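Q: Can I see a sequence and its folded structure?
A: Here is a first one.
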Amino acid sequence: MTQAGGVDFFDPKLRVEDPRTETLFGINDGDPDAKSQEQRRAYTLSEGDGWNACVHNKHQAQLQFTPLDHNVPLDGLCDGILYTCEESADQLIFIELKSRGKRWIQEGIEQLKKTISIYQAGEGCRSFNECKAYLCNNRHPHFQFSQKEAMQRFKHETSMRLHIERDIQIG
């Protein structure tokens, strides 16, 4: 699972669910009070409401969600990654889910940055045409206040664009 100082987030052992192709599906955070790691990690679902993140997959690309938090034995990782399964490897998205807390933006950004730095430290990781990060909060689906400075700092530090919203657009 470790690759030259990094962690292989694409290790098949980390996948806990099948890829999805639906035009719309949700990602929810696990139960923070659950006793097992399996019940604490994030997961995808087709039906329901109150999703932490909504994935809009208009071209029905085959997407793999891999939970990282409570699935990889490292503290402070983001909740998971979502990526296209096709050979072209179009998109890789780092996702942090929040639903409470006063400092959710700062905490979420730190978790995303830590995960991205671990990913970037690994040699031989798959290369993607587009890499970005989403910080999602179902209580603030379209965050009203400008975070332009934090988003620019994030891009400078990680070379990835940060989106602070609940809706994840694919393709």
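Q: Show me another, different protein.
A: A second, unrelated one:
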Amino acid sequence: MAPPTTDVPTEFGVRPATVDELDALVGIEQGPETTRYLGITGLAYHERAHADPDQEQIVAEAGTSVVGFVVLAGLRRPDRVVELRRIVVSHRHRGAGYGRRLFRAAVDRAYRVHGARQVWLDVKPDNTRGRTLYASEGFMPDGTIPDPMCPDGVLLLMRHTPQPPTTPRQE
């Protein structure tokens, strides 16, 4: 297994995934320390998500490599509350800042492209790395829900609501 990369290409971008990349997304989510945090995985999951107009799969590229992906869901909800359903960075590319860049780009896309009024996610309580990232990006705890993959478990809910722009005070 290759160690995490230390070379961080300066070129970084996100874009919608293509159907030809779904196998690569499956490969990324099969990495160590990943599958235990995900619910349903596999090609059929990604094919359904890709075909669903209420979801968008976004890939992160660094240079010419796909280094991770996000799934946004709830894009057609009338209340404009979008779920950040899945964020995964390949094991090889962890620790280089790609996760934070991908996370920021996905949240920005939810607001800017999809008109979200709020973004939410759920996270397993033992996913300290994820919880720390989400909190540092302004996501606030908002209760728990049952974990559908673990009958005795719960998932923590976290929400992000953009702050209205401040107007300078006139004196």
